[in-house]
Design goal:
Largest sheet: 3 strands, antiparallel
Shape: elongated
Number of helices: 6
Strand order of the largest sheet: 2-1-3
């Protein structure tokens, strides 16, 4: 797109194929670093509780029996229980409610990143976990 719009700091905030009435645009030649918006990664789809706990078991983080109990009765596997043990008050209650009662796990939920970080996972590792679970 050969026309860009910049904010007061000079950051590019808009890309246009043609001039736009009422906007101050800058022409950039094709191939210029600012000639196209950055690619935006597609959101990682949610996964079911069954997929979440089955992938944890598949990776050896929890046992198969713990995965079954989590899906059947909402029991929180030991590896997850130890993570939430150190939480206080409302945060601990919210984590317990989510892990024992959720039927869907969201990649963008703050607890997802907290769990991943506690296990030394990067954001890309967590995305890969969700992709693998989604395929089950």
């Amino acid at each position: 797109m050969p026309y860009i719009e910049r904010d007061e700091s000079g950051a590019v905030v808009g890309w246009y194929a043609a001039p736009q009435e009422g906007r101050e645009l800058e022409f950039v030649p094709p191939g210029h670093p600012d000639d196209a918006p950055p690619s935006v990664a597609a959101p990682v789809p949610d996964i079911s509780d069954r997929q979440f706990f089955q992938e944890l078991a598949r990776r050896g983080i929890i046992t198969s029996d713990e995965a079954l109990a989590a899906v059947k009765t909402g029991d929180i596997p030991a590896a997850l229980a130890s993570l939430i043990e150190g939480m206080k008050g409302d945060a601990r209650f919210a984590a317990e409610m989510l892990l024992s009662g959720a039927t869907t796990f969201q990649r963008n939920h703050p607890l997802t990143d907290a769990i991943g970080a506690a296990w030394g996972m990067t954001s890309a590792d967590i995305d890969a976990f969700f992709a693998a679970a989604r395929a089950l």
